[in-house]
Amino acid sequence: MTLLDAVGPAEVLSRLPGVSVSFIGRRRGVVRGDTGHGAVIADLRIDDVDRLDVLLVPGGSGAGGTAVVSHEPTMRWIRHIDATSTWTTSVCTGSLILAYAGLLQGLRATTYWSAKDVLTAKGAIYVPGRWVRSGKYVTAAGVSAGIDMGLFLASLLADEVTAQACQLALEYDPEPPFDTGSPDKAGPELQRLALRLLEQSQR
Amino acid sequence: MTLLDAVGPAEVLSRLPGVSVSFIGRRRGVVRGDTGHGAVIADLRIDDVDRLDVLLVPGGSGAGGTAVVSHEPTMRWIRHIDATSTWTTSVCTGSLILAYAGLLQGLRATTYWSAKDVLTAKGAIYVPGRWVRSGKYVTAAGVSAGIDMGLFLASLLADEVTAQACQLALEYDPEPPFDTGSPDKAGPELQRLALRLLEQSQR
């Protein structure tokens, strides 16, 4: 997975009063990011967890996503948790995992900019946007969009004022040095270069 | 430490060709974030590392920063690495650690919005800004500002076009749901609430 997909929203949500955030893995222990540089700890494994108020599925580049969607116990667990979750959410290509699990059938959803055809092929209706809400399903665009979605979730889980304070707590007043953060703004040449960067940085 | 302080720029820089990113700790192994929810792995310990092109010191709320600045071997290591680094950088209150190490004396620098008096007291010249460069020292504002600074560093380490592609690779086209990400925009009441959120979420 892409570490920031999980850590961005986790950082937001773990500041909310009464909220407990856990990284959950197939096994407990080290989960290395998709670049191979850096890793997080899964404190719980899927077999330990029967119920969640919020399920958030991060994405990633490379073979990790394929490994998840072809691992039947994980897909079954996602469907099981979704059956009683208040919110089922994703960041980046995490929405493809939700779609493969059959949860986004006919629903408006978003994903990483280069993955929209896969999302559509799996039955969702692709909508561009930093995050897209369809009932209890909230999907975010690529990687950094998880922070925007996290703050939106914070306003749902707590209230708008608390979410605003949370945004200040993370000093989230972004000033990207360039205006190339979306495929439309970046253009085809930077799109090709971005995909090359992703490919060469996969471990 | 605050996980996002480290993971944000790590995610940016680990996409650059030829760049290797490592999380470095006092000891190898689990480094829990300052909320207690979630942890990263330190793959190297300071005693393993004699030289870095880029040193990035993350910040954090709570007692962690105090523990670092009073741990003489860590402070000595920071000064030692800085002596040969190309860039010495920080996110959030990480700049206080650089200032305690004596590295920001008389230099323009930034930090988390609520920590500027400490930075000034330790001899730096506080400048508001998402990131501030003084020669080889680049300091970022709070938490999420590490992503902005990471992209700026990417343009220095690689080139501007690669950094622009990197911004697209992370789909970093932020749309914060609120306009409360800086203390000026948020106002005094949200400032108090944000500090309360930080305090109650510290483990």
Question: Tags for this entry?
Answer:
Rossmann fold; alpha/beta; 4-stranded mixed sheet; 203 residues; two-stranded parallel ribbon; homodimer
Quick description:
The structure is a homodimer of 203-residue chains. With 203 residues, chain A is of the alpha/beta class.
Strand content of chain A: 15-25%
**Main sheet: strands, sense, barrel of chain A:** 4 strands, mixed
Question: What is the structural class of chain A?
Answer: alpha/beta
The radius of gyration computed from the alpha-carbon positions of chain A, rounded to a whole number of angstroms, is 16 Å
Distance between the termini of chain A: 11 Å
CATH superfamily of chain A: Class I glutamine amidotransferase (GATase) domain
Strands side by side in the biggest sheet of chain A: 5-6-10-9
Mean pLDDT value of chain A: 96
Structure annotation, total helices of chain A: 8
The level 1 CATH classification of chain A is Alpha Beta
Q: Architecture of chain A, according to CATH?
A: 3-Layer(aba) Sandwich
Oligomer: homodimer
Helix content of chain A: 40-55%
Shape of chain A: globular
**Biggest interface found:** A-B, 73 and 73 residues
CATH topology of chain A: Rossmann fold
**Pattern of helices and strands of chain A:** HEEEEEHHEHEHEEEHHH
Domain count of chain A, please report it. 1
Give the total of beta strands of chain A: 10
Give the low-confidence spans of chain A: none
